[in-house]
Amino acid sequence: MGQFMKLTGLIALISTLTNYVCAQSKCPNTGDEQFVLRLGDGYRYSKLELALWAPHHMVVDTEGNLLVVEGGSVSVRRLVLEELGDIVCVQSSSDLISEDASNTGIALSADGKTLFTSTEESVWAYDYDAATGQVGQRREIVTNMRVGLQHIYRPLLTSKYNPDTILVARGALGDIDPDTTDPAVARSVIKAFSISEGLQKTHDYARDGEVLAWGIREVVAMAEHPVFGGIWAVESQMDDVHLNGRDIHNDNPAERLTYHGVLNDTENPYKGLNYGYPSCAPAWDTESIGIDGLQVGDLFKPDGVPDIPDGECANRMKGRLHFDAHTAPRDIKFNVNGTAAYIAFHGSWNRDSLIGFRVMRVDFGPDGQPVHPANSKTAQVPVFENVEMAHCPLNCFQPSGLAIDKKGRIFLSNDQLGYVYVIYEA
Length: 426
What we know:
Domain Pyrroloquinoline quinone-dependent pyranose dehydrogenase beta-propeller: 39-425
CATH topology: Neuraminidase
InterPro entries: 6-blade_b-propeller_TolB-like (IPR011042), Beta-prop_PDH (IPR054539), Quinoprot_gluc/sorb_DH_b-prop (IPR011041)
CATH architecture: 6 Propeller
Pfam family, one: TrAA12
Number of strands: 32
Strand content: 35-45%
Signal peptide: 1-23
CATH superfamily: TolB, C-terminal domain
Shape: globular
Organism: Corynascus novoguineensis
Number of domains: 1
Structural class: mainly beta
């Protein structure tokens, strides 16, 4: 029995160590890893590029090239990729767009021939040739989005199922934005715009378009289910939350994954729903909140928010899944067959001990919905994460953007250190 226990322990140790090992092959000029990273079961990784400036959201074009939003003077960089043994590496890197640096927003039209980027103020469209990497003159299709220095991201999503539609999200003016109790303010919303109409006459964000969702504090990324066409968004919630004078901010409110129906469904029951912000917040640590019967994801009214009648939070739309408070989701992408969504969590600052700084997987069922219920705390499967948080956030793995190609490879940006990784199914 003793020998068996030793053997079992050795196997477990080998399995654990294996999860810390990257792909044996290495791309040229990518250097050695600076910190210890842990992989989930069934994954391996390699470093793709390390000379980028604050890389954020990414897309893969129809030729398999990776387009990366950068900070600084370059808005979008184009990475032409090549196979090198069992990994993929960069064959060439070039500036694609150098006008008015983008924040995070980037998307391609359904046919891949139009590239969209966003700034704090506008959404821009460019004719795009994936084979040559040439872009045409930019055209402003949405404007009047600037709200202030906080929540500057304007994430974009184009639809395969409704190709003339582009979704644009705009966050709150501050941590708590009282004016957003009125959807006409057009903050803390997701709005849908016609691409063809925007190319003829620029949309005004506040005045034009349709509200897909409101009361949704800061949507940082959106994704369309590749099989069912459902629209999903990840949302970052408010900070420094108190309830009845008690500080409950360390583990509340929950970050969340919200569902918004199918764009080409004329009877979409999710269209135009209110998700509670700024008066209601989703629960994560229900024990510290102390409301009888409250479950994970249920909405409650914190201190200092716009007043609403008692019990009204129960009438607002809840998230579909919920995540640890302050983990700061930054991007979401589905795999090719829609059986999983990958979420990049940028990491916390507004809690006593750091949390996040990881990529997690959420599994989806054959109905196009997550397999876990809305009140689950175990819906996240670890994929890629830091082992040691002591050097976060300045010198650690801090994921920002995701992209997935036709071969199922997951591209992942680290905006703090300028890296792009590739995660492979082992």
